[in-house]
């Protein structure tokens, strides 16, 4: 992979380690607006594939 891509991936991984996957204030609403639909729960997705 190009150096710029490796650098970006490292930054993303460092942010994930430091901040985790907890959404910030307004993140859910912004994502819902971007997608144009309600968000799906991971638990529901996993249950669908577990069948």
Structure description:
This protein is mainly alpha-helical. The protein has a domain at 24-51. It is 69% helix and 0% strand. The chain contains three helices and no strands. The radius of gyration is 15 Å and the shape is extended.
Strand residues, percent? under 5%
Gyration radius, in Å:
15 Å
- SSE order, one letter for each helix or strand: HHH
Q: What is the terminal-to-terminal distance?
A: 37 Å
Largest sheet: none
Fraction of residues in H or I helices = 55-70%
How many helical stretches? 3
Q: Average the pLDDT over all residues and give the rounded result.
A: 91
Number of strands: 0
Query: Which secondary-structure class do the elements indicate?
Result: mainly alpha
Low-confidence stretches: none
Question: Which word captures the global form?
Answer: extended
List keywords for this structure.
51 residues; mainly alpha; 69% helix
What is this structure, in a nutshell?
With 51 residues, the protein is an all-alpha fold.
Outline the secondary-structure elements:
Elements: H1 3-19, H2 27-35, H3 42-50
């Amino acid at each position: 992979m190009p150096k710029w891509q490796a650098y970006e991936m490292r930054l993303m991984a460092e942010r994930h380690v430091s901040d985790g996957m907890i959404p910030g204030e307004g993140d859910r609403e912004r994502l819902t607006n971007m997608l144009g639909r309600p968000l799906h729960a991971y638990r529901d997705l996993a249950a669908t594939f577990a069948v």
